[in-house]
Amino acid sequence: MANLRVVGFSNPYEFLEAVKGNDDSFMNFPLGALMDSMDEQQIRVRNITEDSRTLVGVYDGDALVLALVKVVGDFAWVLGCPGDSEPVGPNAKTAISLLVSFLPSIIDPKLFDNLFGPESLVDAFIDAWVSGMTARGLRIEALPTFFRSKASFATLATLPLPSLVLSKYRIELASPDNVEILAHLYTGFSGSGPNAASIGEARVKMDMSIQLREIWVCREQGEIAGYIATGRTTFRTVAIRNLYVSPRHRRKGVAEAMTVAVMRYFLGAQPLGFGGAPDGPPTKGIKEEICLNVAEEHVQRLYKRCGFLLGEGSRDPTTGKKGWFASAFRGVRFLDELE
C-alpha cells in the first residue's frame, strides 16, 4: 500500500459515486448510514443539512481501503472497509494514521465521540486518536468497549425453506395508529443497550420508521406481538436494525417468523410463505444481501437458523466471501485542555 491517500468529500453524491462499487454487507454500515441521510423524509424530520455529514475515504491508488462516515444525530461514527480486504498489520496502522492526521483538519476534534466498525480497526483508531490528540495538547481518554458483536449477512442462496411457523402469523408493515405500542416496545429493546431511549424519543423514531415503511409488526390473534425494523438501505443491501418481541409472546417462534418474512420479502424469494406483505416488490428494489449486527450468543443461534452466515468459518456459497466480521462499539472522552 505505497500509494495511500486520504480524500474528504463535502458532497454526499460524489462520495456515493466514489464508493458504490464497494456496496456490500461489509460496507452496509457506512453506506447505509449515508444513504439513509439522503432520503428526503429523513432530511426533513432530522433537519439534515449540507454540514450534517462527514465523509472520508482512504485509498490505495484508486481502490478504497477505508471509509469513515458520520451523520449528525447518528449513534456513532462508522468505519468500514470493503469485502474481505480489511487492512492488517502495518497497512492498517498506516491507513489509520492517515485518517487520524486528516480528521482534525475538517472537524473540531471534540466532535469525535463514539466509533463503530470492524473490531481491530476500531481499537487501532481509538488508540491512534488518543495519542494524536494528546500530542495536540488535548486531554483525552479511551473508554472501555461498549459492546462487541458480529456483523453478518444472508442471501437468497442461504435462505431456509418457508416453515409452518412462518405461515402461522400475519406479518405486515406497521401503520400510524401503531406508534404508541411500538414506542413502548422500542423502549424495551433499547433499555438493554448503551443508548436507552425515552418514550418521547421512541415515539419520534417509530413514527419516522412507519412513514418510511421500514418497520413491520407480527400479529398474534390480532395483537401486536413484536416488531422488526429495517433500514440502511443501499443499492444492493438492506439491514435488519433491530427486533423485539413482547415478553408475553416469546418462545412462540415470533422472532424467527418476522426475521424470515422480512428476509424473503427483501431478497425476492418466492413464494413468500406468509400473509400480510405489500403487493409488488420493495419500494427501493429487491436486494442481494440482507445484513445485521448481533451480540448475544442465543440471538446469533436464532439468526443462524434463519440463514445468516454466522458459523465459524462460514462463507457465501456463491462468492466465497466470509460470512461475518467481528465488530465493536467504542468511544473516547475529552477532559479539560492541558494548561
Automatic annotation (TrEMBL):
GO molecular function: acyltransferase activity, transferring groups other than amino-acyl groups
N-terminal signal peptide: none
Any matching Pfam family: Acetyltransf_7
Chain ranges of the N-acetyltransferase domain: 169-336
Protein name per its UniProtKB record: N-acetyltransferase domain-containing protein
Organism the protein comes from: Phanerochaete carnosa (strain HHB-10118-sp) (White-rot fungus)
